[in-house]
Amino acid sequence: ITLVCKARGLPKPSVSWTRAGDKLSHWLASMGRVSTSNGNVTITQAEPNDAGMYLCTARNLLGVASARSTLYFKGMFHPFDVITLLSSNVEVTCPVRGFPLPSITWLKDGQPLKQSMTVKVNNLTGTLYLLSILERRAGLYMCVATNSLGAATATTTLNVLHYDSLSHALTIGDNLNTLISTSVSIHCNATGNPVPSITWSRSGALIEPSKRIKIMGSTLVIVGTLWSDTGSYECVASNGAGTDRKSSFLKFVRK
């Protein structure tokens, strides 16, 4: 960015620049991104922090003249996602940097977000606070920043995770006594959001499906049971919110 100062006169005036009351020469030494040439100022790799009022002053033996130039920046945003657990508190920042300072509003799923006991917005920073998160708070949030130069937006997807612990007992019960050469199904009652992934193990070893052993969704099916199938069967349910596990002991009896 180059700020131009056109100064003419006899004798030829000298030109100096100040920003927020500081001489630009001091600023140049501290930043290393500002250069002057023929009375003009060039700022390389301009940043929002460079915004502000710049004053050009021209002097010669006959007097002094000055002119002001204001450097503005629009808000700058980067979309991101937020993942949280049910009933927790969430703080969502709107990464606003601009001059003049933008005002902030929030939308959820395209509709204005109303403040309440559990929805708060810091009027100074624009930060959104969601307290005691409910599942219905999940959705697409949009931060809208507006100043005299226009508006900029950023979107945030809020995912609310929850999971129900596995039931105290698998569907068949903690323990099952049955006969060999039968079919046994063990249902793992695991629910959650996102839907948990389920793995099965027997006596600590991961179960791989085979001709006799099938994994159908959340149910383990053993066809044509053998004495060697005796053992503790464990269901492990996992999602982004955590992991839970339950087990049943399968034992065979003679007729």
Task: Please describe what this structure looks like.
- The protein has one helix at residues 24-31; strands spanning 2-3, 14-19, 22-23, 34-37, 40-43, 52-60, 63-71, 80-85, 90-92, 103-108, 111-112, 119-121, 128-130, 139-147, 150-164, 175-179, 184-187, 191-193, 197-202, 205-206, 213-216, 219-222, 231-239, 242-253.
- It has 255 residues and is mainly beta.
- The protein has three domains: 2-71, Immunoglobulin-like, CATH 2.60.40.10; 82-161, Immunoglobulin-like; 163-253, Immunoglobulins (Immunoglobulin-like).
- The strands form six sheets. Strands 8, 10, 11, 14, 15 and 18 form a six-stranded mixed sheet that branches. Strands 16-24-23-19-20 form a five-stranded mixed sheet, with no helix packed on it.
- A hairpin with a 2-residue loop joins β6 (52-60) and β7.
- The longest helix has 8 residues, at 24-31.
- The chain starts with a strand and ends with a strand.
- 17% of the residues are buried.
- Residues 163-170 have low confidence and may be disordered.
- Pfam families: I-set, Ig_3.
- This is Ig-like domain-containing protein.
- Residues 1-72, 87-159, 173-251 form the Ig-like domain.
